[in-house]
Amino acid sequence: MTQQFNVGDIVTKKHGKKPAEIVSKGWYSSESWQCRYLHSKQSFTEYASDLKLYTEETEMTADTKTLYSFTVDDKVAYGTHIGTNSSNQYLI
Questions:
Q1: Among 12, 5, 8, which Cα is nearest to 66's?
Q2: pLDDT tens across 67-84, in order?
Q3: DSSP letters of 16-85?
Q4: What's the first-to-final CA gap in the chain, in angstroms?
Q5: Nearest Cα to Cα of residue 10 among 1, 84, 67, 39
Q6: pLDDT digit string (tens) for 23-45?
Q7: DSSP helix/strand/coil, 43
Q8: Residue 70 and residue 47: Cα distance in Å, rounded?
Q9: Which of 54, 62, 57, 52 has the alpha carbon at shortest distance from 82?
């Protein structure tokens, strides 16, 4: 059975840790939701089956080091979060 959500719920992706707020029903499926990350305000659409309600257990702590991957000039690079700039963007 798929989890039922409401606009305003705080969720994470099923295998993620970053909290996001559900802002509306998704446009491409009745089972999708439009979400916005709390830390970056970046939006994404996800199926309800790929979301879970946010709990304090999923929150990252200062002791947790998450390895992020990103692509630069068609090459994959890796890094950890070292801070946030004045635009509230992660510095890796």
A1: 12
A2: 777 777 877 777 777 777
A3: ----EEEEEE-SS-TTEEEEEETTT--EEEEEGGGEEE--GGGS--TT--PEEEEEETTEEEEEE--EE-
A4: 38
A5: 39
A6: 998 776 778 999 999 889 899 99
A7: strand
A8: 23
A9: 62
